[in-house]
Specification:
Length: 408
């Protein structure tokens, strides 16, 4: 199958809009959230128009249809990450909630005072703060794999940290700022060798290249639908069955129980044990449709396209005097280009680019410690996805030259 960029762009109605009359949108903020194709919008609308009902509770036709759609979506998402069984795929609200779920259940039940968790300096706040909170409660130790000047993880330091006998190694497969794609498989192997469990933050990896939980042998994987062309409000946690079965439930309420008495309850089987209350049903349907959509195009083709666009973007950005792009070279980098422009605040860069319809994000991108490491308060960040074009990059570059002119 060939990668037909023109066709793909037609699948995304929002890419046809103008930000202001005569100013077409150049969307370069897919790392924050991806745009949604018609396949996802239609699946969610069809669910509400024809099949809306609460799940797992009714015998009527609509309730059965809704339940089937919800569970079929789970199967699609589980297949998307090559999970052995859909029972291992728990719906959450997003990556953040998936990580919090592991912190509140497995970690809270298993870790004791003095136990060590290894994280990295490039983590998103959602893979830092849950551990800060638990560390304060349980007197845990947190150590961080350093990031090198080029934006790679220092694996020699990682090996040294492993000698301290950590219980968990939790890290991102791809940085949302540097774009660094970490050697997850090898890092997981080393963690296991040291007797630790592993949690992979897949928020930026699962949308952009094929992630196979069995090949990685990862214990937990967290990701969000909205970054892979699905809706907001839903994400997933994958876990190994033995771990999930041994973990206490997370939130209490309807659906997560097998039986309830006035003074006791018995938790439900997997995956329902972790899904309390009426879930995001339409969103689950949209999540499944998004996985189908990406699979239909092919994750390898998507990754190859992003690689080409990112390589082009790096080449063009680096030729602009005063621009510094953070993170490794194209060999180790996904579709993210965070940069500074000498003498101009990143927010001003983003604001002026917006006048030309170019949407980039500015700030610390929820990775403040990483920015502190590089001694900068913020960066402007352009990010790419399957629908990004070379023309998008050209418009970005033209915009940056305008910013330079504006600021003299
Ligand atoms: N982990 C990484 C690596 C991320 O990039 C993000 C979101 C999250 C976790 C949290 O995902 P959520 O769906 O739970 O919010 N990153 C970004 C970003 O870079 N700009 O906006 C959100």
């Amino acid at each position: 199958m060939t990668f037909d960029l023109t066709r793909i762009r037609k699948d995304f109605p929002i890419l046809q809009r103008e930000v202001r009359p005569g100013v077409p949108l150049v969307y370069l903020d897919s790392t924050a959230t991806a745009q949604k194709p018609l396949a996802v919008l239609d699946a969610m609308e069809a669910y509400y128009r024809f099949s809306n009902a609460n799940i797992h509770r009714g015998v009527h036709t609509l309730a059965e249809e809704a339940t089937t759609l919800y569970e079929q979506a789970r199967e699609k998402i589980a297949r998307f990450i090559h999970a052995p069984s859909p029972r291992q795929l728990i719906y959450t609200r997003n990556t953040t909630e998936s990580i919090n779920l592991v912190a509140h259940t497995w970690a809270r039940a298993s870790l004791k005072s003095g136990d060590l968790i290894i994280l990295t300096e490039m983590e998103h706040h959602s893979n830092l703060v849950p551990w800060h909170m638990l560390a304060a409660e349980r007197n845990l130790r947190l150590e961080f794999i350093p990031v090198t000047a080029e934006g790679l993880l220092d694996l020699a330091e990682y090996q040294k940290l492993l000698e301290q006998g950590p219980r968990l190694v939790s890290f991102t497969q791809m940085s949302n700022v540097l774009g660094t794609i970490n050697p997850a498989k090898e890092m997981i192997r080393l963690a296991h060798q040291a007797g630790a469990l592993t949690l992979l933050d897949g928020a930026q990896s699962v949308p952009h290249f094929a992630v196979d939980v069995q090949e990685l042998d990862v214990d937990f994987l967290a990701f969000s639908a909205h970054k892979l062309c699905g809706p907001t409000g839903i994400g997933a946690l994958y876990g190994k069955t033995t771990l999930l079965e041994a973990m206490p439930p997370f939130l209490g309420g309807g659906d997560m129980i097998r039986e309830v008495h006035l003074r006791s309850f018995k938790p439900n089987a997997l995956p329902y044990k972790f899904e309390a209350g009426t879930p995001a049903i339409a969103e689950a349907v949209g999540f499944g449709a998004a996985c189908d959509y990406l699979t239909g195009i092919g994750m390898a083709a998507i990754a190859a396209h992003e690689h080409e666009i990112t390589a082009y973007a790096l080449e063009r950005l680096e030729e602009i005097p005063g621009v510094k792009v953070f993170g490794p070279g194209i060999k180790d980098k996904g579709g993210v280009a965070a940069f500074t422009l000498e003498g101009v605040h990143p927010h001003d860069v983003a604001q002026i680019l917006d006048q030309d319809g170019v949407a980039v994000r500015a700030g610390h991108h929820c990775a403040q410690p990483l920015h502190e490491k590089f001694n900068i308060p913020a960066t402007s960040r352009a990010s790419f996805y399957l629908y990004s074009t070379r023309e998008d990059v050209d418009r970005l570059v033209e915009g940056i030259y305008k910013v330079k002119k504006y600021f003299g």
